[in-house]
Design goal:
Layout: H1 2-19, H2 25-40, H3 44-73, H4 79-110, H5 113-138
């Protein structure tokens, strides 16, 4: 669940930056792929096998993340609506996990499982570093972000 929330936050921040005219999705993808390739020590052949599947998974997950983000932003008026919303969020979370599981299996067929694990770890590190950079940009000079 933490990964999903982190990813939703990352996407939301990216959209905010995009609205400011600073976010370049192509550059983000290029930087992400370069980071994963370097960190996971992928050969050109491994990268060519892995990244089309990786982008495909991200593309399929994007509408689920958007729907989940919209549900989180919902303002239920009573307990019944809150429970319904929570159940919908949980169902999307399960759908995302199933999607990841399907693609993790595809990744392992395309490249060695050890490399897949390294790619997944690199993706997490990249997200974390991206979040840190975004937080630093949003921190007023001379003070810490509170």
């Amino acid at each position: 669940m933490k990964k999903i929330i982190l990813y939703i936050f990352l996407v939301a921040c990216s959209l905010t930056i995009s609205a400011q005219g600073k976010f370049d999705p192509k550059r983000f993808t290029r930087d992400q792929e370069a980071f994963i390739t370097k960190h996971a020590k992928l050969s050109q052949q491994e990268a060519a096998a892995f990244f089309p599947l990786f982008r495909e998974m991200q593309q399929k997950a994007r509408p689920l993340f958007k729907k989940q983000r919209d549900l989180v932003r919902r303002n239920p008026q009573n307990d019944s609506e809150a429970i319904s919303t929570i159940n919908e969020i949980d169902e999307i979370d399960l759908q995302l996990r199933k999607l990841q599981q399907q693609y993790h299996k595809k990744f392992c067929k395309a490249i060695a499982p050890m490399k897949v694990h390294s790619c997944l770890r690199a993706e997490e590190i990249f997200k974390h570093k991206t979040m840190e950079r975004m937080a630093q940009r949003n921190t007023p000079r001379g003070g810490k972000n509170k």
